[in-house]
Write a structure and sequence with these properties.
heterodimer; A: 296 residues; mainly alpha; MetI-like fold; 2 domains; two-stranded antiparallel sheet; 2 strands; 77% helix; B: 383 residues; alpha+beta; Rossmann fold; OB fold (Dihydrolipoamide Acetyltransferase, E2P); 6-stranded mixed beta sheet; 8 helices
């Protein structure tokens, strides 16, 4: 006990410079790992797409980027990826927000079961989900069987269309979206909502005027996260998506493996990274702004 | 501010039949259960127009639940709530002619002070100039004129509570509900704000229900105090009556400081140590309750009387802690002229007392200032 007191007293009187050094040491390992495993490969990839080996030696060239942005197939793949990401982000918000609102404000015991159900997809591997969806909404899947049993015509299957990955990605990303939105809603006190109702606001006006403006930041963070995850997804677009055009994940893999073209694969990766970086910076900006408003 | 306790009802909301400003609240057999637990049990109360009633009780006594049911934030399990005779029991909060001030201010941090107050008026689609006029009047009423453009986080705790009060008052509710609004403020600010709120309430003549667990707040502000315990009403009376004639042992102990001496009444006489009082009550166990200011002390001779444990000089009076001959610790408030040293003996000489049995007041009396036998002045029928 006495030792502890002495140590804490010593720590308390440690010079500020020493404490700062200790703090830097604590973050040094993760920072070095990020530098080694993330920053360095990114820089190496960017450099290797711009410095091309020729018989005369390495020369600066933007040929691979010019090819990417002039190739119709590459651009179609990029636009499909952007379309899938945008549709998924909107659908995730549309599906996740009502669930998060219910979980935040419901006092029912049923809410716990809804939460469990909403979080469940997080524990299902993408590959299992993909095959489950094929068996459910694919040709001659459960939906077709039920429609057939009811004497109804089959519906066009979203399997192998752009909507296939959309359904899978929304299902897969819903738990994280719900969790993040619920956390954002947690910052809105019940009394703030009750005060709005007290002055005459019905549920819709409470949502529009009180809840929505105060969870804008958490929605931005949620969208940033969802976009980053969806843009770089591979399994669900690979298994459920169309063969052509295809999303950037499968496109990169096929360019690298099947076409044995690492330069173009890296170029696709750098372009994907550039787009994701925009959302990454957006996320960092949201977090910084949020912390700034908290410290006020 | 030219506001009157009359609601500016949104479309389809509660509307008054007449243009009078009468706002009487009637609560009949209100009950609220959470599972098997009754938070409020058969609570009835009439609050007259312009009256300020304090709901007072310890934590878990159901006072906030009652207020929330009046505001529409909790649905009663059974019972009826009427405002000016109109049943509002099943109306949602936004359609009730009530205004609530929350313990945590509940200001909307994404709006400035003006917009916080104007929000309810905007919902009612009032003209912009009318909204501005009303908001400025409300701000002036709570002493925050010129603060409209401030952000809420730029205000102190007391200023935030004033904004919350202005937000409630600007809609001219029939009933103002205050849910421990000063709980998060320091003592000095609390005292100042409660005076201001009382003054505004009296100026507007608005019917008000105030929830608090601070008895000083209740005694200072209320026209009537409702003392609650375990969801049930223990006593409803004016503050001085609640303080001087508590009807139950719980109220006697909860309001102010009280000495309780327990003994058995035998042959119409209550005996505790050398204290002996004739009581016109049936024999049996009884509790004698005496406030410190009603417990006189006289120097005792020899080894009889209560032992002085400590004397604390508060300037205007001295608080003497004693241990009675029955081994009970009691407090007596004496004049600075009369001093008792630690370890000395003193005779207990109550001047005003109540007698309780089974939590009910069964007798009360007044004794002459000097110790000795005395006849009972008044006896009370048990409930």
């Amino acid at each position: 006990m006495a030792d502890t007191a002495q140590i804490s007293a010593h720590g308390g009187t440690q010079p500020a410079r020493g404490r700062g050094l200790f703090g830097l040491l604590l973050v040094a390992i993760p920072v070095l790992l990020v530098g080694w495993l993330i920053i360095y490969p990114i820089l190496a990839a960017i450099v290797s797409t711009l410095l091309v080996d020729t018989p005369e030696g390495a020369t600066f060239s933007t040929a691979s980027y010019r090819f990417f942005f002039s190739d119709g197939y590459s651009l179609a793949n990029l636009s499909l990826t952007l379309w899938t990401t945008a549709v998924c982000a909107v659908l995730l918000l549309v599906c996740g927000l009502p669930i998060a609102l219910y979980l935040r404000f419901s006092t029912s015991r049923f809410a716990a079961y809804v939460q469990g159900l909403a979080i469940f997809p997080m524990f299902v591997p993408s590959i299992i989900l993909s095959y489950a969806l094929i068996r459910t909404i694919g040709p001659n899947g459960t939906v077709d069987l039920l429609l057939n049993a009811a004497g109804l015509p089959k519906l066009p299957s979203p399997y192998l269309t752009p909507w296939g990955p959309v359904i899978g990605l929304v299902w897969d990303n819903l738990p994280l979206t719900v969790l993040m939105l619920t956390a954002g809603l947690g910052a809105i006190s019940s009394s703030a909502v009750e005060a709005a109702r007290d002055v005459g606001a019905g549920p819709i006006r409470v949502f529009v005027h009180i809840i929505l403006p105060r969870m804008g930041n958490s929605m931005l963070v949620t969208i940033s996260f969802a976009v980053l995850g969806i843009f770089s997804s591979f399994t669900l677009p690979y298994v459920l998506g169309p063969a052509s055009p295809e999303m950037m994940g499968p496109f990169m893999m096929r360019t690298f493996n099947d076409l044995a073209d690492p330069l173009n694969a890296k170029t696709q990766a750098v372009v994907s990274f550039g787009i994701c970086l925009f959302f990454g910076l957006f996320y960092v900006w949201s977090i910084a702004r949020n912390q700034g408003s908290r410290s006020r | 501010m030219a506001v009157s306790p009359r609601v500016l009802a949104p479309e389809g909301a509660f509307e008054t039949e007449s243009e009078t400003t009468m706002a009487k609240l009637t609560i009949e057999h209100l009950r609220k259960s959470f599972g098997a637990t009754a938070a409020v049990d058969d609570f009835s109360l009439d609050v007259d127009d312009g009256e300020l009633v304090c709901l007072l009780g310890p934590s878990g006594s159901g006072k906030s639940t009652i207020l929330r049911m009046i505001g529409g934030f909790e649905h009663p399990t059974s019972g009826t709530l009427r405002i000016d005779g109109q049943d509002v029991t099943r109306l949602p909060p936004e359609r009730r002619p009530t205004g609530m001030m929350f313990q945590s201010h509940a200001l909307w941090s994404h709006m400035n002070v003006f917009n916080n107050i104007a929000f309810g008026l905007k919902l009612r689609r009032l003209a912009r100039a009318e909204i501005r006029r009303k908001v400025e009047e409300a701000l002036e009423l709570v002493g925050l004129a010129g603060y409209g453009n401030r952000q809420t986080f730029q205000l102190s705790g007391g200023q935030q509570q004033r904004v919350a009060l202005a937000r409630s008052l600007v809609l001219e509710p029939k009933i103002l509900l205050l849910d421990e609004p000063f709980a998060s403020l320091d003592q000095h600010l609390r005292e100042r704000l409660r005076e201001e709120v009382r003054e505004i309430q009296q100026r507007l003549g608005i019917t008000t229900l105030f929830v608090t667990h601070g008895q000083d707040e209740a005694l200072a502000m209320a026209d009537r105090i409702v003392v609650l315990r375990n969801g049930q009403c223990e006593q409803v009376d004016a503050p001085d009556i609640v303080y001087r004639q508590p009807q139950t042992e719980f109220v006697a102990g909860f309001i102010g400081s009280m000495n309780f001496l327990r003994a058995t009444v035998e042959g119409g006489r209550f005996r505790h140590g050398d204290l002996s009082i004739a009581l016109d009550v049936a024999d049996g166990p009884a509790v004698l309750a005496i406030r410190p200011e009603d417990l006189g002390l006289a120097p005792a001779e020899g080894e009889t009387g209560a032992t002085v444990l400590r004397s604390t000089d508060f300037g205007s009076h001295i608080m003497v802690d004693l241990e009675s001959e029955g081994g009970v610790r009691v407090k007596a408030m004496t004049s600075p002229a009369l001093r008792f040293d630690k370890g000395s003996r003193a005779k207990l000489a109550p001047t005003l007392y109540g007698v309780y049995r089974d939590n009910r007041l069964i007798a009360s009396g007044r004794l002459p200032a000097s110790p000795g036998e005395c006849k009972i002045n008044r006896s009370v029928q048990t409930a």
